[in-house]
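Are you able to produce any protein sequence you like plus the matching backbone structure tokens because I've never seen that pairing?
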Amino acid sequence: MTESPTAVEYVVLEDGVLCITVSTAANGTSLDFDGIEAGTVALRELDPSVGAVLLVGTGPNFCAGGNVRAFAAADDRGAYVRGVAEHLHDFLRLLDRAPVPVVVGVQGWAAGAGMSLVCAADIAIGGPATKMRPAYPGIGFTPDGGMSWRLPRIVGAGRAAEILLTDAVLGGEEAVRLGILARLVGDQVVQEEALRLARTLASGPNSAYAGIKALLHASETSTLSDQLDRETASISAAANGPAGREGVDAFIEKRRPNFSEIGRDAT
């Protein structure tokens, strides 16, 4: 860790968006664990006003992965890397359980744990110059950050094996084609567009988003019949909830729904 939380504001809550800085230019754009730890605390004690989470890097790259120089300097490299992985995984478990959309703006490189964080997002936006690489084989490591679990579910088992084993570099267009990135915008506006999207989601029907995320999570191990039952229960509850009532009433009254005053209610 190279910077104290007083030097960088790692967690900022504004306009319903919880912005978490996961890498900094001063840290060589590698994973900054002051940010990860601050984000872990914020996610564990999630403010009720949070409507979306945005992960950002403050340097030219979103996140260039773990600090390899710190790995090399450790007296017990295995113990050190275990601690790094455990801290990152605590953060990722909480991020996965967050009932709000998670957005990532991927400028420059997302390598190693940075690529894992991109795969953990609900919506990831990049630019034409965005590049991703597992990076683990290059230093003789195996993946962390959930990449071995998420990547096959995004791109398929065979393609994931090729990407990981060959340490493939993926450009922005290929990452969109594979489904890792949702879309590309101009390189100079990646972070701006990611923030705009996060703000839009934060003002939306948060209970519906929570229900959508719950259904998507359940679908990973569900049969179609069980998933249909879950969908029935979820949409019925949504119809009686404040967001559902507002959405339907606004449609009938031919006006834009106002979800921002409803708050983050349960689905």
Remarks:
- The chain has two domains: 11-202, 206-252.
- The beta strands are 11-14, 17-23, 52-57, 102-106, 109-111, 123-126, 131-133, 170-171, 183-184.
